[in-house]
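Lecture 7 notes: from sequence to structure.
We start with the chain below.
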Amino acid sequence: MKDRKIKNFTPELETIEQFENFKKLKITIQNCDGVAFITKSKRDFKLSFDGVFKYQSDKEIKVNIEGEEFVLKSNDFKEPINDAFTGVSGQHTFDIDSVCKGCFNKEDLFKIFFFDNSKNKRDFNDKLETAKNDGVNTWAIECVRLCVNKNTFDITKYKNKNKSYFVIENLEPTSLKEFNEYSYAIQKGIGFLIGYMPGGENYIFSGENFIYQRLARKSLKSIFHPVTSNPYSKLHKEKNIADSYYGKLKVIPIEVISNFITQLRNNEEYAVAIIFLMEVTHLKSVVSMPGVFSVILESLANIIITKQNTIEKLIADETLFNKIKSDLNAVLDNYANAIDENAEIKFRRKINGLSNSINHKRLTNAEKLRQPFDQLQIKLSSEDESAIDFRNDLLHGNILMNNETTKTSKEIDNKMLYASAKLYTLISKLILKNSGYSGYVINHAKFFNKDAKEDYFEEI
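Predicted structure tokens for the same chain:
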């Protein structure tokens, strides 16, 4: 049996804990006379200084903290436009954007630590395939090992002293710039797959050297996620139904996760669509979700569709088509006296047009939205088709998707939640199938309307 090389982040977490507990700690600013203190207040480091502050054009100052040298960066350190008080002693308070200790090598191994504010106990185990102990790389129970553009990364959910962190590591040396770019793709990809994207303030370590920084984009927690292997986590009160899915639902394989994150790393348009999706599901806006999801669905269609120059005839057999046309006209004959004459003429034109060829170079918007599903062989139900058509309501100003029937506010909210959940499920199917996934996805719409004649989990 191979020896387990267990992940141990104790040295880094001791440093993080030390800095997170700074409360008016006295420090020394190099080449600057005065009294300085550093404090961690909620999510920000603040520098208080009493004396003549020397502003810096590069927005950096060197300080000594408990006998060691650090570099602090802040836009506040740049000399102000109004320099009337430059060189005058006074009291100052600065927001610190980053704290840096030591220098990083041109290429190195890095670990980035994000604070976990998700409050979820099982982020990985029910949703993602986790890493196996190979006796070579360090291992943890909640760890996903990815291969992105032939580079290997670990993302681990790590608990220490009643606190939880997401840690991303590169297992082959790379530059800090590239590590940050890969890390951001992993944040977005994992964020969509588990419903929580780490973000905001973080610490990056390479050995004893580290940098603290604040990302503009904070962590995002979605109300949706696409897959679970545990039916009981969704069907709390429907145990008999959950039993019927037990053993059928699976986690997302590592290969699929890697493919998805590689696509995000290499395609900025795709990455932006995922961020857009995470932001609106984080806000939980009933009014915004259907519209934004429709935009995202259209964006994904443009990204995923394989360009085709062919002309497709839906019914190639002319004899068969004439029989279908005859049967449909016979049905229409039965209702001819009950419908308007102009409506009858239009119906018959539509019947004749069923044999028209589809030119894949000149698709209608409706055809474009459906083409990626066709290409990926994802079956669309009548409910799916109706959800895709919600786009037309929104484009024509029908934001609340009203028809001629008067609805209460609660009924409108329920309809919009159902539409949002259905569109999210369709988006999930596209994203996962395009990454090589086959299995069940959560049909969130069914959970918002349990009377709907749909399954709680749908197979692709």
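Points to note: Residues 158 and 165 are 5 Å apart (CA to CA). The longest helix spans residues 409-434.
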